[in-house]
Amino acid sequence: MINKNNKFLTTLDYYIIKKIIATFFVAIALIILIVIIFDLGEKIDDFIDHKAPLKAIIFDYYCNFIPSFVNLFGHLFFFIAIVFVTSRLTARSEIISILCSGISFKRLLRPYLISAIFIGLINLYFSNYLIPYVNIGKSKFEQQYYRNPYNNQLYNIHIQSSPNNQLYVQRYDNNTKTGYLFSWEVFKGNNVIKKITAETITYDSLSNQWELVNYSVRTIDKDKESLERGVNTKMDIHAMPNDFNLNVINMDILNFNQLNQAIAREELKGTNMVSTLLVEKYQRLFNPLAYIVLTIIGLSLSCKKTRGGTGFNLAIGIGLAFSLILMMKVSQVFAINSNLAPCLAILIPIMLYALIAIYLLKRAPK
Fold it and tell me: Could you give phi then psi for residue 199, rounded to 5 degrees?
């Protein structure tokens, strides 16, 4: 029955891979339907009050909601799929038959790892490109039909748009994209060579420039100084409207390249958003490794018959998966609010559970 030739993948491998992938997607689909029903029941009054069209609710909100949900709970449901499929094979004594036929446990691990890598790559693509794209439409829908837009309540905003440019506004209104009591200082070394001030600045989306009202431009060239005044003018101040919304970066709509650009901008400005953005970056990069670790743990736990059967294995497995997810969230908080390096904050829980996986792998039946 079992193909023992030297093929990289045999009939048995394809059988296990199909079972794991099918179980994973069925479990995700079922829970998504339940979540959508509860979410709709909670928000239906807001949708009705804001007169949200049915087409927008389905396609702009819930269709864009599904990839985010799959990505958020993918680890848990893939782990459940691993435990469920393996426990069923064990209960029918198929694992014992496979091992007795001469196939090693490491060889049995191959289709499981291929499944984990496949889902991990999907997770990598979803996190860095697909979800940020669909979240743009979802965010617009929420602002229009569910949530009120963000209102900037910050005062005395300082940002460094480039190494030699420092901007200041006393107050910024993000709804009208207008800043009040604006100043812009240009440095050369330690000296200010130009200072521009204005009563208000307003962003013009057509020209991608800022309109300055009641402005003055003071230029300093060694011992010479000149002053220019005017009612209004337009210029590029090397900053975009969202740059004045300190600590309010919507990471959900940033793809991997945009996230790196946001990190570079925040490092230049010296804000406390850098750690948060780095945590998000490394989480997107390293989270797929958790699929491999959980796969090894799930197979090692479920390949041995227990009195509790599938239910007992699922209970232990879900507990381990939840503890890993919890530890990953706790370590992220430490990275954001303390001196723990963001890269380590993401890798430490995965490495710790990798050690547990190795221990369980050694104890698994051979």
Answer: -70, -45
pTM above 0.70, yes or no: yes
8 A C-beta contact, residue 272 and residue 342: no
Q: Rounded to the nearest 5°, which phi and psi values hold at 243? A: -65, -25
Distance CA 57, CA 47 (A): 8
Residue with tokens 């209004």: 232
Give yes or no for a contact between 159 and 244, defined as CB atoms under 8 angstroms apart. Answer: yes
Least Cα distance to 173 among 222, 252, 67, 244 occurs for 244
β-sheet bridge partners, residue 219: 194, 226
User: Helices (DSSP H) in 93-208: which residue ranges?
Assistant: 94-100, 105-125, 131-145
Q: Which two tokens stand for residue 291?
A: 């699929």
**What residues does each domain of the chain span?**
11-147+275-363, 155-247
**CATH class given for the domain over 155-247:** mainly beta
Joined tokens for residue 208: 């991608």
CA proximity to 264, closest of 284, 285, 249, 283: 249
Tell me the per-residue pLDDT of 39-92, one tens digit each, with 9 for 90 and over.
888 888 888 888 888 888 888 888 888 888 888 888 889 998 998 899 888 888
Task: Band the pLDDT of 126: cuts 50, 70, 90.
Answer: very high
pLDDT in tens, 264-288: 877 876 667 888 899 999 999 999 9
DSSP 173: E
